Amino acid sequence: MTSMGKTRRMMSVGLIGAALALTLAAPARAGETPTAAAGWQLTPTGTDARFRGLAPVDRRTAWAAGSKGTVLLTTDGGRSWRNVSPAGAGDLEFRDVEAFDARRAVVLAIGEGEASRVLRTEDGGATWTESFRNTDARAFYDCMTFFDHRHGLAMSDPVDGKYRILSTRDGGRSWEVLPSAGMPDALPGEAGFAASGQCLVSAGPRDVWIATGGGATARVLHSADRGLNWTATDTPIPAGDPARGVFGLAFRDRTHGIAVGGDYRKDQPSPQAGAVSTDGGRTWRPSATPPPAYRSGVAWLPHSRTAALAVGPTGTDLTTDGGRTWRTVDTGSYDTVDCTADGSCWASGEKGRVARLVTED
Q1: 301 CB burial (10 A radius; 0-12, 13-18, 19+)
Q2: I want to staple 247 with a disulfide (CB 3.0 to 4.6 A). Which of 39, 61, 261, 279 is the partner?
Q3: C-alpha pair distances (Å), 216 with each of 25, 191, 219, 283, 323
Q4: What's the pLDDT tens digit per position in 290-305?
Q5: What is the mean pLDDT of each run of 10 residues along the chain (361 residues)?
Q6: In terms of Cα–Cα distance, which of 271, 130, 252, 264 is closest to 201?
Q7: Are 353 and 346 in contact (CB under 8 A)?
Q8: Phi then psi dihedrals of residue 21, to 5 deg
Q9: Does pTM top 0.85 for this prediction?
Q10: Which burial class, exposed, middle or buried, applies to 157 when counting CB atoms under 10 A from its CB (0-12, 13-18, 19+)?
Q11: 156 CB-contact burial (10 Å; exposed 0-12 / middle 13-18 / buried 19+)
């Protein structure tokens, strides 16, 4: 085994150990992280914004984007955060952020008509440039993803019966609406959920998936050519109501995917909140033991073929078998979760909550 292979294996073992350590922690009070040597460690953000957008770059650098036009940046592993919010953005709702490093990031604001916007920074948030403003009152952009530093997509709820896809080839400096000829018709009432920045996700240089809900069935749409042509597949996650469907997706490669969701209303159950695919999203099967409640975010642990975390307002769940079975390991409230290639996992959510998964010192 090469030295790089040994390093990656050690990272994987350490992260899985940290996630598994959450199962050994003492039960926590609602909204609190267990007092254990390993688990989610909240970081001091100094704000009460709700962060549904999260983009960790590595174990030291991460961006968070949320309500009231708030964007934060840390370069010291979460020990301190800088408020790098765009000037005059207080009325915007940022729901997604994609970051390339400590200087370059792209944020998506959601809403009807001109409330949907894309802004970009190249100097660590010191200045921002608006690179897209939606002028179609029928469009409502939900999520964004990048294949690499140049190529990315953003997704709007259906316009004229089809999801609208926005494309960039220059790292978010400019955008164009893609032709809709290769997009299947949306179901009546179907839409995406701007809950975690994970209703549009990519893996590799060309594959991308859309998560949907609200229609008669919850579907996942897949494109293998960066958004030009799509196929739609039903999932077993319940829909049939504007509050139900698939809220988050994660693919560890172009084949293996996990879907999470449910019903986001607090007084409604989510009996089948997880599903898995082993064929690139062409088929989905229900988790044998799904997360016990609505989950909006999901992420594979780095360099693991079987371990992933799912998060939602009532807790964090761990799978060690590729999404077939889940176990709740934390009761804190988070909306989204993401992990980095160098071995760190982050989560964020309401009341300024941003946390890192830490291991025993």
Answers
A1: buried
A2: 261
A3: 40, 11, 9, 17, 24
A4: 999 999 999 999 989 9
A5: 38 49 40 53 97 97 98 98 98 98 98 97 98 97 98 98 98 98 98 98 98 98 98 98 98 98 96 97 98 98 94 97 97 97 96 91 51
A6: 252
A7: no
A8: -65, -25
A9: yes
A10: buried
A11: buried
The residues facing 56 across adjacent strands are 62
Residue 190 and residue 219 in contact, taking contact as beta carbons nearer than 8 Å: yes
Q: Which two tokens stand for residue 128?
A: 């921002």
Q: Return the HEC string of the chain.
A: CCHHHHHHHHHHHHHHHHHHHHHHCCCCCCCCCCCCCCEEEECCCCCCCCCCEEEECCCCCEEEECHHHCEEEECCCCCCCEECCCCCCCCCEEEEEEECCCCCEEEEEEEEHHHCEEEEECCCCCCCEEEEECCCCCCEEEEEEECCCCCEEEEEEEECCEEEEEEECCCCCCCEECCCCECCCCCCCCECCCCCCCCEEEECCCEEEEECECCCCCEEEEECCCCCECEEEECCCCCCCCCEEEEEEEECCCCCEEEEEEECCCCCCCCCCEEEECCCCCCCEECCECCCCCCCEEEECCCCCCCEEEEECCEEEEECCCCCECEEEECCCCCEEEECCCCCEEEECCCCCEEEEECCC
Q: Which two tokens stand for residue 172?
A: 């978010």
Residue type, 85: S
Instruction: Write phi, then psi, for 115 (nearest 5 degrees).
Output: -65, -25
